[in-house]
Design brief:
The protein has 267 residues and is α+β, with helices and mostly antiparallel strands. Helix content is 20%, strand content 23%. The chain folds into 3 domains: 121 residues, 3-Layer(aba) Sandwich (Molybdenum Cofactor Biosythetic Enzyme, Chain A), CATH 3.40.980; 58 residues, Molybdopterin biosynthesis moea protein, domain 2; 73 residues, Molybdopterin biosynthesis moea protein, domain 3 (Molybdopterin biosynthesis moeA protein, domain 3, Beta Complex), CATH 2.170.190.11.
């Protein structure tokens, strides 16, 4: 290529301006398609629609402590000076954490709070209704809005969704990003470099970052500094992916063909 065809940079674009332009163009791009995935596999995915609770959690009144389920009214007036004696199991039913509370009981005493005897217990303080009981819908109520569209799913979200019996969630497909390293001196990972060559490590590093950011990276083998090869690689990447990242080839060197190639393809 003749020297006169080289690109000459008279002004560099600040990174913040480049970032702003990139985000502006991304905001006008078509939305990614929606897909349904299992909630247990949805970590870091972005919701595509509001998600509502299908069921309440807990779905029944459950004991929050190990001890005895009682009818609170029978314990009113209990004190250390005048303990109340309750018959087991008619008036005080043994219960474990997580067990359903019997329908005729409305409170639970912790086992440490009672004096146990053969067929009775003594309580030295009155119980109040719902004491040590997890009520229906205490965590989430059926119909509650759990997540809005555009939220990234975190571990705490997955737990809440499963508690609400939401087994699958609508999410946006992960953006596919093709990474194209360029340069005749670049060698694929695994090939020992010779003189004037080096292992192309930027592509794998960027692909790893893309995976961490929630993308599906497609890392290509290094493309030599040839316009025909670049046209073919970029054209194929544009057809197969949502975003194309090209490493190198955009400076003022005699073999920096990337800007002209992009212009030739209509970019």
């Amino acid at each position: 290529m003749m020297l006169s065809s080289r690109r000459i940079y008279l002004k560099m674009m600040p990174p913040e301006d480049a970032r702003r332009i990139l985000l502006q163009r991304a905001s006008t791009s078509p939305e990614l398609p929606v897909e349904e995935v299992e909630t247990t596999q949805a970590l870091e995915r972005v919701t595509a629609a509001p998600i509502y609770a299908r069921a309440s959690s807990p779905s029944f009144a459950a004991a929050a402590m190990d001890g005895y389920a009682v009818r609170s009214q029978l314990t009113f007036g209990a004190s250390e000076a005048q303990p109340v004696t309750l018959e087991v199991p008619a008036q005080a039913e043994p219960i474990n954490t997580g067990d359903p509370v019997p329908p005729d009981k409305d409170a639970v005493y912790k086992i440490e709070e009672v004096h146990q005897q053969a067929d009775t217990i003594e309580v030295m303080a009155p119980a109040f209704p719902a004491q040590h009981i997890r009520l229906v819908g205490e965590e989430v109520t059926a119909g509650d809005l759990l997540m809005t569209a555009g939220e990234k799913l975190q571990p705490r979200h997955i737990g809440r969704l499963l508690a609400a019996q939401v087994w699958t969630v609508p999410v946006r497909r992960k953006p596919t990003v093709t990474v194209i390293p360029t340069g005749a001196e670049c060698l694929p990972v695994g090939q020992p470099p010779g003189k004037g060559q080096f292992v192309e490590y930027n592509g794998p590093m960027i692909a790893a970052a893309l995976s961490q950011w929630g993308c599906t990276p497609q890392l290509q083998q290094p493309v030599p500094d040839k316009e025909t090869a670049l046209v073919q690689a970029i054209s194929q990447a544009v057809a197969d992916s949502d975003v194309v990242l090209i490493i190198a080839g955009s400076s003022a060197g005699s073999r920096d063909f990337v800007p002209n190639t992009i212009a030739q393809l209509g970019g």
